Amino acid sequence: MKETDYGHKNPLRCPKCDDYRFLDFKGVRFPEGNKSVGIKIPFFDCKNCDTSTPVVLFPERIIDNVKKAETYYKKIAKEQLDKINDGEFIGLTNSTENKTFESLNTVGFKYDSKDYYFIPGLYRQWDEGYLAPVFFSKELLLYYNSHSDYKVKFASTSRFHIFNKNEETLIRYGFGINRNGKIICWLGDLEEDLQGAENDVHRKLFLTFNIDSDHDIISDYYFNQIEANWTSSDNETGIFYYRNEFDKKLKKLFGFELTQLDINTLIDEYKHPVINESHQIENSYIKLNSLLTESLNVSELKKSLRENGVDAKLIKGLKGLKLFEKFIEHNLKIDNSSKIVSPLFVLYDLRLLAGHIKDSKYDEKFKSCKERLNLKDDITELEVHQEVCKKLKEMYEYLNKN
User: Is the dihedral of CA 334, 373, 232, 235 positive or negative?
Assistant: First the structure.
């Protein structure tokens, strides 16, 4: 379990199911007779098991203990109840409510100061507000992903950078994407990196797509930068890495190149789909299939199989994926080869569906792909894409280990 500066596991971890929770704020009423006090209380809520725990903030420490929180807020409410008359109601807000970090407000981004104080790991006694999360809609990425002078590179499904044509980052420490598909960036990084007249266009774009906080910080971006927990890539970046490592090992073991195309050029041209939009996702399937299937060196695979005792008749007529499956089974001596390479066959089928009219036959074939990935039928196309990439990455990772 990853430890934090609080001396125990991250308070966002649910004590019941261990999933990561999100920050929420709820109005709680404390009545006494016919008068009452309302307090806006922070909670850590878990979507996975529906638990909700009130939170108390002390200097540099967050306590998510129900009994301590109840005692704390009842005491505050009692102090106010003793001051008001019968029939009165007053509402109390936290001192962190709508706080402005003046030194970081030159650009004018909107943010919720409560996030900075209540989300574990963001508060610092120096540089107050620097790690306040600022949220943007994913539509911001459409401009950069389609612009010839910029490239969006995803290190994982929830962490990415924007590069210019000189391979310089727009925001030095990059961005995150939370579980609701919203972009996250630290207020201090935005203020520092978007200064100067040359960044006028970027500032205006970012301000246009700046949205309200949903108080959910969970992403590789948060884990890497705040918890210093460098998670393994779960997307195309991981696929490319493990595929290249696999290629190198095969060259050393069998003396031939598995890839007959310039895979580095293809990778450089690859564009990650950034929103749930069919055209982007279909183009990704086409490019991934070129990288992983069409690039297979069929002649060398056949030659290697023959040299290792496979009857030429048994591989006559076999094409890329079937040859690769046979190679894994016979030359690498790995059982369940058909199950192992199944993600590649799913990718191939999704590539065939790309550009087809979405009629009943399309729906039937697409449903089959989801079933082979053990996915529910009602998930989005982008979620299917992310699962395909995850399975492909795991496949190459497994092949490297074995």
Answer: positive
63 Ramachandran zone, left/alpha/beta (phi>0; psi -120 to 50): beta
Cβ–Cβ < 8 Å for 399, 244: no
Q: How many CB atoms lie within 10 A of CB 127?
A: 11
Number of Cβ within 10 Å of residue 263's Cβ equals 19
- Please give the biggest Cα pair distance in the chain: 95
Give φ, ψ of 181 to 5 degrees.
Answer: 80, 20
pTM value is: 0.85
pLDDT score at 3:
36
Return the structure tokens found at 60: 């540099």
User: Rounded to 5 degrees, what are φ and ψ at 278?
Assistant: -55, -45
- Per residue in 273-321, pLDDT tens? 999 999 999 999 999 999 999 999 999 999 999 998 988 888 888 888 9
Q: Are 41 and 23 spatial neighbours (Cβ–Cβ below 8 Å)?
A: no
